[in-house]
Design goal:
There is one protein chain. Helix 9 crosses helix 10. 54% of the residues are buried. The strands form seven sheets. The chain has a seven-stranded mixed beta sheet, sandwiched between helices. It has a six-stranded mixed beta sheet with strand order 10-9-8-11-12-24, with helices on both faces. A three-stranded mixed beta sheet has the order 1-5-4, covered by helices on one side. By secondary structure, it is α/β, with parallel strands linked by helices. Helix 6 links the parallel strand 9 and strand 10. The protein folds into two domains: 271 residues, Aldehyde Dehydrogenase, Chain A, domain 1 (3-Layer(aba) Sandwich), CATH 3.40.605.10; 182 residues, Aldehyde Dehydrogenase, Chain A, domain 2 (3-Layer(aba) Sandwich).
């Protein structure tokens, strides 16, 4: 078993209290124990990042490339090992865990390249003889609060751009998944970074999160998690006039119209709704289906869903792993119960017993729903999808947009006209045509609209908007 320690100012720091890291596929499998930190330890991490910030801000593009490339290369070389760790502590199937680890490595590799491609602008002034230079500067200390559902990819897509653009970091990962964050920071600790540039603090978000958010030494907060917590962070950052970036919930629609390729639509919805146990903010939770294809689609998706193998994340052939913990499982089951009480017809959605004691449930499909039902208004964050029957494309688009969220939206159609119209009119930050709503590339911007996101985009070159400030300099030679 591992002891997952804090990493503060270049030193691994233990705490007296700790929390067990339990495998959701087998609760008897304890991976280790993570530190439970005090507010004082968080303050120490912030101080370390603050002291280290000027040195890293003055680093060269080559220094930043070398660090990021080292980290990316090691993650990719160890993707099977790190993927197995991820699957043990979070519950993704082993192929999904390895895939996420590889993505984290690719993210670091991408930002290694970006460190060498940082550029500014030279503009002509309206005043004769005056030169104008527009450049980007680091923000300073960036606080990061990350969720449990992507325990290595999300820390990677926050930490890598922060370092690329010359910032120092304090990372507070989710309590349920300390192993991946610890492994990532252990690699970073050997990458050549000056002490204090990256700091890792484990603990309860309610106890140490406010310290990070409210510190005057922390100039920006990047958060991924629930809507209520995100709103609270936004309010606190607003009081401090602090940069904030929020990625929160989704209630993502997948529209299936009459002319869709049925097999393709079923595959896209099966993947989007149930892979990664539905524990993705981009999951296809509302399947909006037009009348002409509705019955055939529901029958085909039901058959495909029932054929999914649910089991231990590390077991060969498992297609859907467990829910992350008992609390999340009970929340999922309660939403299934609510949907049934609201006259939805529930297929699946039951707790399952397997050879090992874990948090297993069968995927759930809820038919005969309308968009006003709770199951279609609130994020479940589990393997639960509902079907809404609509008359035609126009009604489908209206229902798709009738939500407080706006992260990802999809459509299955063979019509170029409908696809083009949907891309232009879906109220979402990301739109998919004949593809699952979940699953985006690592080099393109990620984010949504309405209640799903706030602030500038994550990932890709657009990450510079959050992790830098723009400086305009005038010179009269």
């Amino acid at each position: 078993m591992m002891d997952y320690k804090n990493y503060i100012g270049g030193t691994w720091v233990e705490t007296q209290a700790s929390q067990a890291n339990v495998n959701p596929s087998d609760v008897s499998d304890v991976l280790g124990h993570a530190a439970k930190s005090s507010a004082e330890l968080m303050e120490q991490a912030i101080d370390a990042a603050h002291q280290a910030a000027p040195q890293w801000a003055a680093s060269t593009p080559q220094q930043r490339f070398d660090v990021l490339d080292f980290v990316g290369s090691e993650i990719l070389a160890r993707k099977e090992e790190l993927g197995r760790l991820l699957s043990r502590e979070e519950g993704k199937t082993l192929p999904e865990g390895i895939g996420e680890a590889a993505r984290a490595g690719q993210i670091f590799k991408f930002f290694a390249g970006e460190a060498l491609r940082q550029a500014g602008d030279r503009l002509a002034s309206v005043r004769p003889g005056v030169e104008i230079d527009v450049t980007r500067s680091p923000v300073g200390v960036v606080g990061m609060i990350t969720p449990w559902n992507f325990p290595i990819a999300i820390p990677a897509w926050k930490v890598a751009p922060a370092l690329c653009y010359g910032n120092s970091v304090v990372l507070k990962p989710a309590e349920l998944v300390p192993g991946c964050a610890h492994a990532l920071v252990e690699i970073l600790s050997r990458s050549g970074l000056p002490d204090g540039v990256v700091n890792l603090v484990f603990g309860r978000g309610s106890e140490i999160g406010p310290v990070l958010v409210e510190s005057d030494k922390v100039k920006a907060i990047s958060f991924t998690g629930s809507v209520p917590t995100g709103r609270g962070i936004a309010a606190a950052c607003g009081q401090k006039l602090k940069k904030v970036q929020l990625e929160m919930g989704g209630k993502n629609p997948m529209v299936v119209v009459d002319d869709a390729d049925l097999n393709l639509a079923v595959d896209a919805c099966l993947n989007g709704a149930f892979f990664s146990t539905g524990q993705r903010c981009t999951a296809s939770s509302r399947l909006i289906v037009t009348e002409g294809i509705h019955d055939r689609f529901v029958n085909a998706l039901t058959d495909a869903m029932k054929a999914l193998k649910v089991g231990h994340a590390l077991e060969a052939g498992t297609q859907m792993g467990p829910v992350v913990d008992e609390r999340q499982l009970q929340q999922n089951l309660s939403y299934v119960e609510v949907a049934a009480k609201e006259s939805g017809r529930v297929i699946g959605g039951e707790r399952l017993n397997r050879e090992t004691e874990g948090f297993f449930m069968s995927p759930a499909l809820v038919t005969d729903t309308d968009n006003a039902m709770r199951i279609n208004r609130e994020e479940v964050f589990g393997p639960v999808a509902s079907v809404i029957r609509v008359k035609d494309y126009d009604e489908a688009l209206a229902v798709a947009n009738d939500t407080a969220f706006g992260l990802s939206a999809g459509i299955c159609t063979t019509s170029l006209k409908l696809a083009s119209h949907f891309k232009a009119n879906a109220e979402a930050g990301m739109v998919m045509v004949n593809l699952p709503t979940a699953g985006v590339d690592y080099h393109v911007p990620f984010g949504g609209t309405k209640g799903s996101s706030f602030g500038s985009r994550e990932q890709g070159r657009y990450a510079a908007e959050f992790y830098t400030t723009v400086k305009t300099a005038y010179t009269l030679p």
